Amino acid sequence: MVQISLRLSPGANSVRRAFNRNIVAWGDSLTAGSGVAGSLTYPVQAAALFGGARSITAKGVGGQTAEQIAARQGGRAILVSLAENIIGAKGLPLQSWSFDFASTAGWTKIGSSGLLDNSGNVLRRSGVTDNLGGTAILLGKTVPSGHTITATFDLTEYSGGSNAVKIKIGPASSSGSVGTWQGIENVTADTIGQHVVSHSVSGASALAYAFRFNGTPATAASFAIDNLVIEERAPYAADVVTTRTINILQDSGVFTGSASGTLAGQRGTMLTDSAGSWFFSRMDDGDAVPCPAGTVFLPDEAP
Fold it and tell me: InterPro entries attached here (predicted)?
């Protein structure tokens, strides 16, 4: 009797593993399936031939040329230039104010009742019975509408009177009177510990920052704050792309869509408007980053 056996070569397992890998179908409207039901597109039909063993991801975009398709794949470099050859800073404060409360200099008492002092090197407002009584400080500059003001502070003492009136916190139009809130009005605090609150300045510009009771305490109320840091930030604007070699943000002749990717080491998203102009919006906060003319933008979808 003759016994016949089949021995697989050492590379057979790697071949089998390679066969089980998924497929990406790059292309134009033919790959996207323009004019047919989704189940009739060739990537779906081709995937069915594998009996579910392999999936096919369709990456077709209508009207794109071979060069545009190759650029989305990463096979052709997309070279871009930005205005001033930098990726602008994001999320950094334009100005900050820090207070150690070695004195109460600059702080104004809002309301006539009670005291404003810095005993224990904290800013303390005590004995308040006025409506909206508290304290505020002029920032020394005008913070325009649309900017964000963030305050980080420790609330070390709090007593809202017998009716537990909370403290309202935020940018205001005045430091010497009740004034008008120039931001989000529902930020309040009544718990001991660190607080971080942010406000988008709305309406008129903000001139001051205030801590005051949000109503009239039924009995004398007080609070104390420490380690206060106030920061002003401008709204972030994406960087304008002045030149590009290949436009991948185009579908069936219309400038549209976006592409996440990397530019000069910065993660972000490339955006387009209806006229075909590009803008790069960085993802992470940080300082400005050099971006020499002709820097490669690598889309995330490139394998």
Answer: SGNH_hydro_sf (IPR036514)
Task: Please state, as a whole number, how many other Cβ atoms lie within 10 Å of the Cβ of residue 132.
Answer: 18
Find all residues with CB under 8 Å of 106, minimum gap 6, and list them.
137, 138
* Model confidence pLDDT, tens digit, residues 267-297: 999 999 999 999 999 999 999 999 999 999 9
CA distance 95 to 42: 57
Contacts of 5 (CB under 8 A, 6+ apart): none
pTM of the predicted structure, to 2 decimals: 0.73
Distance CA 297, CA 281 (A): 12
Which amino acid is located at 232 in the chain?
A: E
* Tokens found for residue 143: 């913070």
Top-ranked range on mean pLDDT: pick from 20-29, 40-49, 150-159: 150-159
Q: Do the Cβ atoms of 189 and 169 come closer than 8 Å? A: yes
Continuous segment of H or E residues that includes residue 229: strand 221-233
Q: 95-233, which class in CATH?
A: mainly beta
17: left (phi over 0), alpha (psi -120 to 50) or beta: alpha
Other Cβ atoms within 10 Å of 144 Cβ, number: 13
Burial 44-57 (b: 16+ CB within 10 A, else e): beebeeeeeeeebe
Confidence of residue 176 (pLDDT cuts 50, 70, 90): low
